[in-house]
Structure formats: structure tokens, C-alpha cells
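>> received
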Amino acid sequence: MSNLSASLKRLDNIMRNDAGVSGYGQRLEQLIWIIFLKVYDAKESDWEMNEDNYVSIIPEQCRWLSWAHDDKSGRALTGDALLNFVNNTLFPTLKTLPVDVNTPIKKSIVQTTFADANNFMKDGVLLRQVINIIDDIDFGDYHESHAFGEIYETILKELQSARDNGEYYTPRAVTDFMAMMINPKIGEMMADLACGTGGFLISWLNELHKKVETVADEKLFSSSVYGIEKKQFPYMLAITNLLLHDIDIPRIFHDNTLLKDVLDYTDKDKFDVILMNPPYGGKEKNDVKSHFPVDLASSETADLFMSVIMYRLKSQGRAAVILPDGFLFGTDNAKVNIKKKLLNEFNLHTIIRLPSSVFSPYTSITTNILFFDNTGKTEETWVYRLDMPEGYKHFSKTKPMKLEHFKPVMEWWDNRTEIEEDGFDKAKKYRKEDLEGKYNYNIDLCGYPHEEEVILAPHDLIQRYQEERASLNAEIDRALEEITSLLGRELE
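>> returned
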């Protein structure tokens, strides 16, 4: 492990000296396409050994051993010759590999991974140094491959430090907690419809693997996850992540979940379990909103994903979804209609309020985990406020949230009681009738005491003001409608 960590530091230092690579994001993107090809080469070695007449989708001259592996004979490509090959042969070839609907996923992922990938390095000697370090890692060795998988998780975590990339990474403690509470079963298909780097998929697999006992179980386990990711960079990260975790056929698709009419989904498009942290804060255009029923056509990205989740969850299926406070307190028409659908067609049994800074420094917006299932309408909803652990004022890169911080929720989960602390509700059960009537679909309940609130970053503050204004406008409109109706009856 220490040798692998040292190798990563060397890689970072080498790429910092290349004039074509600017910033951590580009260094990581440069590194990932090289790692992908090395890992894929190890997988192909297994497939060639275990399958009769296996034929690679990659032309021979572009396979790892043909151009990247250095046999120390002095013939390995380097300098301008290496750059010329990578830029003018390797990338054009992999980007245009012949792929159609009949191409096996484990082959088509090469073309989709490279579709929008880039080689940023301009120094062929430095590029050769990077390739040699990666080449020295034995991904065919179980222990070394799994050790690198742990390091890869650390690489992904680093993305949280940069706002532009933070949206791709949900803290492992959160994904692990959600997977544990959802309780995976052998034979179920789990999906993340905006999967980023694949964190939820990996947490599901880790939790499900504890229940694998037979060869048949192993086969079902290996085909139990499904992901969609719109952006090329996290898509590449997710594919590589699953390959590193021994999923030979990563069913992750480079696509936009929101660009399909939700009314067109059939039973074959639905999943047993959905675990997600939908993108939030974004505003969608009318052409995206047109794929949703008028009453659910919000301009807020997270709202639209929530609708998709409801349309793609199987009967008896289970879901756990991270959503910002704006979804809870929002009473504009679209949010109210989405919550009506959720309460009347699904069982929203639990809301876990998360402490601030869980996603720091990407966002300071407070978030929540909604647990629901497709077993019938909601009768009652439990809300539990998870407080900041003792000794913490906020989470940070050096003091991130850990799975152990969810211990109070886990202890409460199967033995639920209402809890009040210092005059504030910490855990409370609400009837569906009250959520609809008394609270008018504002389910911003068991909130954090005012003294614990943090000052939001400017962009997050603006977003919250916009959400609160939309909700206030909706309430004013409803009040005016009632007044107008009353006046109309008086004039009759």
C-alpha cells in the first residue's frame, strides 16, 4: 500500500512538470484514461484465458502490450514518437471503435470511455514516465489490485476539495449508511440514475457481497448494479471504479436520465432499489421539462430526478435519496405535486436530517436522506435529526464524516421513539394527514436549532432565497385564490 501511495505522489509530481496539464482535474483525467487501459488489459487477459475465441475490440497496435508496456529492450515509444502515436493513432482509433446495440457492454465501454477523453500532456518523455509507473502495478494480482482500489477511493475523495468536481462525490460514510439501511438482497437490481463516480454502486456491492454464498449468488451479485452518468469525466471514473472492484461488465451508460419521457417507462425499465444523490441547484430548460407531466415539470434538477425515481421504482421496491432542504420546505406548485405523489403513491417512512458541512467544501446547503418504498401510500413518516458529533463544529477535508457518526441513527432505526432535546424535536412521527393539512406539504420538520445554523456561502444563500421566494409566492397565490373565491360567493 505504501509503495502504491508513493507511486501516486510520483505521478502527480511528474504531471505537474508538464506544460499541457493544468490543475488537479486535468491531472486526474490524464491519469484515469491510462489506468483504465491498464486495468482493461488485465481484464482482457482473464477473458482470453477463460473464454473460447475471445477477440478484443481494440486493434492490436492499440492494445496495452503493443505500445505502453516497456520490456526494457529500449524499443518502447517515448518522446515525440509516443505523443504522435497517442494523439494521432490511439485516441482517434478508440474514439471511433465500431459499436452498435449488439456490441457486448464489456467491449463497448472502451469507445464510450474515450468518446470525450483527452490527452493533455505535451512532453512525451514525461508521458512515458507516467505510463511506466502505471505499467508496474499488477492489476492481475488480487491483493495489489484491491489495494489500488482503496487508493482510487482516496483519489475520488480528493475531488470533494474542488467545487467544480465536488458534485461527483458523495462521502463514503453517507453511501455506506444508505446501503446498510436499504438492506440489499441477492437477486435485486440497484440503480443510480446520476451515478457520478459510482460511490453508491460500490457501497451497494460491498454490502451485498456479505450475503454471497454460492456461485449462483456471485453471478447475481456481479450483475446487480446499473448506472447512468451524463458527464464524460465522472463516467470514465465510474467505469474504472467498477472494473477495479471486479465488475467485469459495468452496466453504466453515458446518457442523460432527464431526456426521456417518464410516461414511457415500462416494467422492464424499473428497479428493485434506487440509491441516489441527485444533482441539485441546477435549472433545467423547457425542452427537459417537456419530458414530465405538466404538474411535475419543475425547473429544479433535483425535483425532476425525484419524479424519475418514482416512475422507475418497481412495485415493492425501495429507495434512499439525498435531497436539499429546499425540497422539504418548498411549497411551489411543482414541489407540492411531487410531494403529493410521493405521499399518496409511495410509503415515505423515514427522513434523516443531515448536519451541515457533510458535503463541505462543495456546498454548505443542508441535506436530507428520504427513505421510501413502493408498497402503498404513506401512513406516517418518522423524521430524525442527526446532530453534529461531539467534538465537531463542522466537517472538513481533514475531519470528514465517518460511518460511526451514524451510530445514533442506527441504534434508533429498529426501536423508534420520539425524542425532544432542549425544547426542540429531534425525532418525531408525523401522520400523513398532518403533513398534507397542518403543514401544507412543508416537511421541513425536526430542523436544527437556530444557534446551530451556519452562514451559507453566497451561491448557496442565493439558491435558498430563490427557493424560499418561490414557496412564498405559491402561498400568496393560494391565499389570493381563496380570497377571490370567497368574494365571488358573497357577490352571488
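>> Residues 43 and 49 are 10 Å apart (CA to CA).
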